Amino acid sequence: MSVDPWFQTLFADRIGGAGYGKGTEIYKFEKIKRAKRKALADHPDRQLLDFGIGENDDLAAPVVRDRLKAEVDKVENRGYADNGIAAFKEAAAAFMARQFGVTLDPVNEVCHCIGSKPAYAMLPACFINPGDVTLMTAPGYPVAGTYTRYYGGTVHRLPLLAANGFFPDLDGIPADVKQKAKLLVINYPNSPTGAVATKDFYKRVVEFAHAHKVVVVQDAAHILLTYQGEPLSFLQVDGAKDVGVEVHSLSKGFNMIGWRMGWVCGHPKIVQAYADVKDNSDSGQFMAVQQASAEALRSVEIPREIRVKYERRLRKLVTALAQVGFEAKMPGGTYFLYAKAPTAAGGKTFANAEEASQFLIVDQSVCCVPWDDAGAYLRFSVTYTAKDEAAEDVLMAETVARLKGLNLKF
Ligand SMILES: Cc1ncc(COP(=O)(O)O)c(C=O)c1O
User: Fold this and answer.
1) What is the pTM of this model?
2) Domain locations in the chain?
3) Is the distance from the beta carbon of residue 54 to the nearest atom of ligand 1 less than 6 Å?
4) Which CATH class is domain 62-299?
């Protein structure tokens, strides 16, 4: 038995206090990893069909990698980047203008982040005092909620239900919650549901923000992976810049997950507050990475190719899953297909999506991610490894072959 270190009782309550590291709860992604290990151990010759990975499968474009290589050798890029270089801010503003027709002042209305994840950790620091509320869609990307709690606030979950088109029911939020709410965090194209926003929805968000004095944070991580209509920025809607910011990322749309670049843009006072908190937390992304990211943002072709590939793969997956009984529909955006989990398969019944996914992984080596936050759903990602379109087709045929005999019930 391991002995506690002398400081065990000193851990802060926000991470579990003296009980830190002693919990027995196993997190979702750890359960998936364990199930994958079991599938590989039990069936070493059976290929794991991995729809669980939520990361782009390709390298960044050659022009971006070449630019990084050149910038690495420049002496002016060696130091602290603080709140970012003008070249990146200008490229981000020019991208917003070209892609969405949104005009931003690169100096005061754009500030980079080292990937968008840390921005969700920092924005609550700008607004949340103990007792304040952050409104967050569920399922959703959890970071802003975690930090809201770290700062003594609470999170009010807004379930994303198919019946509401995977939009939150803003009218249904209790009056006392609205009164304490300071932040509304939304995410469209939505991960994992794949829903895309409409102008009408964003107009309602702007009205809601004014009516209840709530700042809006719109997570646009997947925005360039939009298949239903043109990508829509929150800032395209009249009045949006008065009430919030949109957070962009180069991860998904430019195959730059590991490069860690994104930006916060919108109301200058919110951008300023974010930049102040950021300045007290990090010293900015390596300037060579910022220059290479600016290069990426100048390209129309790079995100177009990535979108075309994931759209093609999603269409194939919709067809494959529909053949075995899933109610699979083409998502409006993201590289995820979100489909109702089966309630039974292969003579077994499942109480929730997690049980269904564990069965599919262990029994069939078909990996997907369960979501039980608002109904029981499975998320299939098309970021699997396949060297060409023929390999994609082989993978789809194998997926159908594995699932067909299971007699999936929904
Ligand atoms: C919805 C959503 N928002 C934000 C992020 C963070 O992306 P990054 O930190 O790579 O910009 C992710 C990454 O998975 C995501 O899925």
Assistant:
1) 0.97
2) 26-54+302-404, 62-299
3) yes
4) alpha beta
182-222, pLDDT tens digit by residue?
A: 999 999 999 999 999 999 999 999 999 999 999 999 999 99
Mutate to test the pocket of ligand 1, among 252, 282, 285 (most ligand atoms within 8 A of CB): 252
For residue 362, which of 66, 37, 7 has the smallest C-alpha distance?
37
- Ligand 1 atom nearest the C-alpha of 118 is 9
Closest C-alpha residue for ligand 1 atom 14: 54
Q: Which CATH number fits domain 26-54+302-404: 3.40.50.720, 3.30.70.20, 1.10.10.60, 3.90.1150.10?
A: 3.90.1150.10
Q: How far apart are CA 232 and CA 290, in angstroms?
A: 24
pLDDT digits (tens, 9 = 90+) for 220-259: 999 999 999 999 999 999 999 999 999 999 999 999 999 9
CB distance 137 to ligand 1 below 6 Å: no
Could you read off the pLDDT of 136-191 as tens digits, one per residue? 999 999 999 999 999 999 999 999 999 999 999 999 999 999 999 999 999 999 99
* Residue 322: both structure tokens together: 């529909």
Q: Quick check: CB of 285 below 6 Å from ligand 1? A: no
Q: Is the CB of 251 under 6 A from ligand 1?
A: yes
Are 215 and 127 in contact by the 8 Å Cβ rule? The answer is yes
In Å, what is the CA distance from 286 to each residue of 68, 113, 299, 359?
10, 11, 21, 44
